[in-house]
Write a structure and sequence with these properties.
Layout: H1 2-24, E1 29-32, H2 33-43, H3 45-50, H4 52-55, H5 59-65, H6 69-87, E2 91-95, H7 99-113, E3 118-120, E4 125-128, E5 133-139, E6 145-150, H8 157-171, H9 180-202, H10 204-215
Antiparallel strand pairs: 1-2, 2-6, 3-4, 4-5, 5-6
Helix pairs in contact: 1-2, 1-9, 2-6, 7-8
């Protein structure tokens, strides 16, 4: 049982610690939706392994291929994540600023691309009439992060690259939100990783045997 808990705790703890440290730095982080989804997929990979992975484990293929089945399963998981990313609505993810304080730097970033850009404060949308695009701000439940989404469905990689570059430049001058939530995430991540390290140090033989049995079934 401890071995399965370790599989869950290690990637999830690392993800929570990373989120916490990002907030504790008091710097705004802007990334793409694809990278954010990929990081989340890595965080829950342990849950997938001990949940659906156990339920739908290809026992017949494992008998025929042995431990070689695991790289194939890992590849299948990564391809599934890649498919999800490709079918997602294009977006940018901003950590450290909510939708309201993000509006001004986002407008400045848009005006560096389209000087005629304008903000509708009531709806939280920004129009770029020259390029024919419309952006909206979607607040996360935590309140100190938000998504920047495009109303239009057509993907314009050059526009997103330009917006990502300009928005990073603009938010670099903005103070990040309170570090309170970051301290919570970092503490939870450190607890999970600390527990995993303690279990590994106290029961190295049992953990190694559990890992070997899990791989070679």
């Amino acid at each position: 049982m401890e071995f399965y808990a370790l599989i869950v705790a290690l990637p999830l703890g690392a993800y929570l610690l990373m989120l916490g440290l990002i907030r504790l730095r008091r710097r705004v982080l802007v990334t793409t939706g694809g990278r954010d989804t990929f990081a989340l997929a890595l965080a829950i990979s342990g849950l997938v392994a001990v949940g659906p992975g156990e339920l739908f484990f290809p026992a017949t293929a494992a008998t025929a291929l042995g431990t070689a089945v695991w790289p194939l399963l890992a590849m299948l998981y990564l391809l599934t994540v890649a498919l999800v990313v490709l079918y997602q609505r294009p977006r940018l993810v901003v950590y450290g600023l909510g939708d309201a304080p993000l509006a001004a730097p986002l407008l400045r970033a848009c005006r560096s691309i389209d000087a005629a850009s304008r903000l509708d404060e009531r709806s939280g949308t920004i129009s770029l009439p020259t390029v024919g695009l419309h952006l909206r701000l979607v607040r996360h439940r935590s309140g100190d992060s938000a998504d920047v989404e495009l109303f239009e469905t057509d993907l314009r990689p050059d526009f997103w690259r330009s917006l990502l570059t300009e928005l990073r430049r603009e938010v670099a001058r903005e103070p990040a939100a309170s570090v309170g939530l970051g301290l919570v995430w970092a503490t939870l991540g450190a607890i999970l990783l600390g527990w995993a390290a303690t279990q590994t140090a106290l029961r190295p033989t049992e953990i190694a045997e559990g890992f070997r049995a899990w791989l070679s079934r």
